[in-house]
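User: Here's a chain of 216 residues. Predict its fold as tokens.
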Amino acid sequence: MKSRPAVVVLAAGSGSRFSASSHKLMQRLGQSSVLGSTLHQAIASHLPVVVVTTEAVADAARCHVAARDVVVLPSAGTPNGAPLGMGYSIAAGVAARPDASGWLVLPGDMPMVKAATLVAVARALDQHPVAYAQHQGRRGHPVGFGAELYSELVTLSGDEGARRLVARYPAHGVDVDDPGVLIDVDTEADLERLRQNLQPPPLAPQQSAPVLPDRH
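Assistant: Prediction complete.
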């Protein structure tokens, strides 16, 4: 079977701007949580999913995906005690799925991104080394990377994430009718606004997986 791009859900951040006693990804949203809503859409895309997280959130992730699909980062950070950063999380997720035909980076605090958007960005990787979702001309997530960038992705570190790769390679914007690509949950006000004004998108039907075109 032809490999497909994998969705790398980033759920290892400390959520320091969120002042509630429990982690922002564990907060209720609709009938699930912030992280659960994000994972529902990732799973509904029928693409492989890997969650990069910390021990504090790992059990919540395992409620939605198999334990083998959860990568738990060391809580102590780097050997010198510095935080691992988003770049390290991306590298860990990519390394966990080395045979994928690409990787879609999706922050775990973006619960409104639709499954169809993930599929659209995955398809764009057949023609472009880097692709990202955009809504009404505004760049959002997920950001996808083709398999040819594997060696660079697995060496990422620090908080810069993959910005240098996006700047270095031709990046293709995929227009989607999905405002969720611009919505994340950083603060309690963000979450309350989301609860009041938006409902999590309906889960995509799972009877049949979308077929991605073969590479030529």
